[in-house]
Structure formats: structure tokens, C-alpha cells
Inverse folding.
């Protein structure tokens, strides 16, 4: 009989295999097609069986409820997929997370950075986070839309980019945050400089005050006044408490946050040193989106009269996809190699610690496989 711990150990093994590929590629300075294909295979298998996170089992329960005709908190598009396209939970995950993986690949293909390297960096730094929640599909669509708007000029690309960007909202409500980041990044990526960055950093406390005064009212609006906001979801985000986390969970949080902030600091260093000006157009857009995802999400790192840690975690995860492109470009161009290696090491430590802690928890898991 297969136990949950066995599947979590499989997750750990899959990640270690990707880590082995990454180590080899970092030594040689390149990634071959065969290494990329193997990485993508391991990537998709990991996404199909992410037993390391409880959401895998929550979605399995939701899948069964929808198949039986009950309601669900998931968006209508997922209900349609369950009722009309997939008949098993495996197929549902293959369509949603397999589709998200392919869309991620297409988004990275629309950049001047080596697609293989971007996928590898993403796998090393963020794969477990990407694998567990349905918002990953919305994230992938959001940045596919941005890539279409910034990689190649042309009316067809612009129209398709806008449609994909708007469409991402229907796959998860928090895509509204990602869309906002993308729009800001598209507007600023070719204009942003030292003065703009200084202004953003100086205004950060003001943004916190604004959020403190208006956040609760915004998320808890009556549905009749603002139907686009899901009131119940907003309340859940605001009341999710994290104060009782144990030391292991706090270490994981620290490692995860440190990875993002090291990336943001590297972006600032490159900006203030003037090297950003030499970046290709699409890489500028991704790098800027990475920075603003982290900055805007960080507003919610402080409990604004209510617990906003779930909002913070959800929003900062939108920085995953653009951050991998930025880091991959830094690796390829050998920009601040010591700092870039620190970013990668911190991200790997975060993922490994998360998976090892999941192995510990899985020994006493109440879930069944």
C-alpha cells in the first residue's frame, strides 16, 4: 500500500534529480536539449503528484465534490474542466498543471534569454511552490500575456497579449494583482531609472498607510457594491492566522522571503550601476515585473490591522515567473556571479527545507493515498 510519505519522498527525489541536472549545467555553463527535456519531464511529474503540500488533497476532495454535483470555491473554468473534460483527478491535474507548465515554457520562449536555462532556474528556485496551487495557471497566463506584449511588436501580438492577460483573471481572482504588476512594468520598463526607484522606495511607507486605511474596506465590500470582489475569499485571506507557526515553518518563510529580496536587491544594484540599460527589451520587462511584484506584495508583509500574511504569500509568488528570467539572464551574462549564486543557493535551500519538512509531517499525515 502506498503511503503519503512515499509520494512526498518521490517529490524530494524528483527535485534532487533536477538539482543534479542544475549542478551539472552550472559547471559546464550550458544546458543541452536532452537535459532540458529531462528537466521538463521531471517538472511535470512533480506537478502531478505534489503530495508535499496539503492542497493536493484539498483539490482531490473538491474534484470529487464537483463530480458529484456539489458546489466549490474554485472558478467556473475549473468546474467546466472537471465536468466536461476530465474524468479522473490525475487527468484534471494533467490538464491544469500540465497546461500551466506548457504555458510557462511558451512565456519563456518569448524572451531573449535561453528558454532552457530559464526553465531550469525556475525549477530550482520555485517548482514546489508552482506545483501546489491552481493560481499557477493564472500566473503562467499573466506572464504569457506580458511576453506577447513586450517580445515582438505587431498588432496581432498586442491583441493576443491583451486577451491572454485579461483572461488570466478568470483562472484565479488574485491574477488581478499580477495584471496590475504587468501593466505597471510594461509602462515603466523602458523608462525606469534611479529617480523612479528612489521615489518607489521612499513612497513605500505611504503605500503601507494607504493599504492600512483602505484594505479592509476594499476586501470586505458588500458584493452588491462591488461584485467583482469575492467577499468570502477576501475575508478568508484577512483572517488566516500565521502567528502559531512553528520554528520549521518560520525558517521556510525566512528562506523563501530572503530569495525574493536578494533578487530585488540585485535588480537595484544593476539599475544603479547602469547595466540595466543594456538589457534586451523583454528581459527589462520581466526584471521590472519581478521587482514590482516583490515590492507591491511586501506592503502586505505587515499586518495592516488584520492578518494579511496569506495575501502577502499569494502576491509575492507572482514574482516567481519573472524572477527566473532575470536570474537566468544574470547567470548567462555573468552579472554579479557571487550574488547570483547566493540567490540560487537560498532558493534551493528554501525548496529543500520545505520538502524535508514535508517528509517529516507526512509520517503522521491523516491523508490517504
Amino acid at each position: 500500500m502506498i503511503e503519503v510519505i512515499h509520494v512526498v519522498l518521490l517529490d524530494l527525489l524528483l527535485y534532487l534529480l533536477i538539482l543534479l541536472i542544475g549542478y551539472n549545467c552550472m559547471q559546464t555553463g550550458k544546458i543541452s536539449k536532452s537535459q532540458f527535456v529531462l528537466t521538463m519531464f521531471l517538472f511535470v511529474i512533480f506537478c502531478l503528484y505534489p503530495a508535499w503540500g496539503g492542497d493536493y488533497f484539498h483539490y482531490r476532495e473538491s474534484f470529487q465534490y464537483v463530480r458529484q454535483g456539489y458546489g466549490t470555491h474554485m472558478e467556473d473554468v475549473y468546474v467546466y474542466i472537471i465536468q466536461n473534460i476530465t474524468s479522473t483527478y490525475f487527468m484534471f491535474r494533467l490538464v491544469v498543471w500540465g497546461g500551466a507548465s506548457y504555458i510557462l515554457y511558451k512565456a519563456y520562449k518569448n524572451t531573449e534569454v535561453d528558454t532552457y536555462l530559464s526553465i531550469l532556474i525556475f525549477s530550482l528556485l520555485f517548482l514546489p511552490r508552482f506545483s501546489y496551487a491552481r493560481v499557477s495557471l493564472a500566473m503562467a497566463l499573466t506572464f504569457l500575456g506580458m511576453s506577447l506584449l513586450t517580445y515582438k511588436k505587431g498588432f496581432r501580438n498586442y491583441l493576443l497579449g491583451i486577451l491572454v492577460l485579461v483572461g488570466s483573471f478568470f483562472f484565479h481572482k488574485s491574477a488581478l494583482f499580477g495584471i496590475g504588476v504587468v501593466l505597471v512594468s510594461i509602462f515603466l520598463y523602458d523608462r525606469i531609472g534611479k529617480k523612479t526607484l528612489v521615489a518607489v522606495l521612499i513612497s513605500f511607507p505611504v503605500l503601507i498607510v494607504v493599504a492600512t486605511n483602505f484594505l479592509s474596506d476594499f476586501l470586505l465590500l458588500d458584493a452588491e457594491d462591488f461584485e467583482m470582489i469575492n467577499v468570502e475569499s477576501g475575508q478568508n485571506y484577512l483572517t488566516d492566522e500565521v502567528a502559531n507557526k512553528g520554528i520549521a515553518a518560520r525558517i521556510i518563510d525566512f528562506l523563501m522571503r530572503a530569495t525574493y529580496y536578494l533578487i530585488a536587491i540585485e535588480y537595484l544594484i544593476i539599475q544603479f550601476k547602469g547595466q540595466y540599460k543594456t538589457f534586451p527589451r523583454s528581459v527589462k520587462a520581466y526584471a521590472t515585473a519581478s521587482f514590482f511584484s516583490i515590492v507591491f506584495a511586501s506592503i502586505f508583509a505587515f499586518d495592516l490591522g488584520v492578518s494579511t500574511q496569506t495575501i502577502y504569500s499569494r502576491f509575492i509568488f507572482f514574482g516567481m515567473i519573472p524572477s527566473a528570467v532575470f536570474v537566468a539572464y544574470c547567470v548567462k551574462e555573468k552579472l554579479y556571479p557571487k550574488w547570483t549564486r547566493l540567490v540560487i543557493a537560498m532558493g534551493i535551500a528554501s525548496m529543500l527545507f520545505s520538502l524535508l519538512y514535508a517528509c517529516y509531517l507526512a509520517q503522521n499525515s491523516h491523508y490517504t493515498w
